[in-house]
Specification:
This protein is of the alpha+beta class and 232 residues long. Helix content is 39%, strand content 27%. The protein contains 7 helices and 8 strands, in the order H-E-E-H-H-H-E-E-H-E-E-E-E-H-H. The strands form 2 sheets. It has a 6-stranded mixed sheet with strand order 4-3-8-7-6-5. A two-stranded antiparallel sheet has the order 1-2. A hairpin with a 6-residue loop joins strand 6 and strand 7. The longest helix is centred in the N-terminal third of the chain and has 41 residues. The protein is elongated and about 55 Å long.
Amino acid sequence: MANFIASHSIVPIPTFHSHNRHPVFHSNYCQKVGKIRCNAKDDNSDNALLKIAWYGSEFLGIAASFLRSPKIGDSVTADVELPVDELGKIDRAAVVGAIKQDFQTSYFVTGNLSVDAYEEECEFADPAGSFKGLNRFKRNCSNFGYLLETSNMKLMKWEDFEDKGIGHWRFRCVMSFPWNPILSATGYTEYYFDEKSGKICRHVEHWNVPKMALFKQILRPSRGLNKDNKSS
């Protein structure tokens, strides 16, 4: 995003001929404009392809949920009530503790998360798009889990800020496609807290991997994959 904004922030600086004062743009500026336009087209194409892949995976997950038997613990939901103060606001430490506990159950692929820590109309966003609704997020996560043979997600670091917390994570999975692609990435999630309820009102994922690199990982067959590698 920073590179995209920087490339669009280039302001043309015209030079004037000493006689007619008409602006004359140097050829290197024209080259820059051409590069900007190409980069914009490439970025739009990447975003469109990523959205197609995102909605495609959502559809495949729904289909797989009907075709594959649920795994033990997949439908378990952490419905523990979190403590509130006299104004009905949930304690921040309790919400953070619930988030860290959810990582233990790999909530990204199981849908097992502490529902009391989230607003019902919480916004969920990632590089492919965004939507609102806790139930849809839970459904998408659990359905995505049906597309995986194995998965491992680990919270590496937690940071606290005034209006949000940031969890840095590492994720690796083997997808249950015939070519057994391996999806591996690091990233972080921003958890924004509602001022009144103390619950999470925005859940924003950021992946430290280029968008198209993730898509290419899904298309790439794994080499020499065996059971020991799957369990790692």
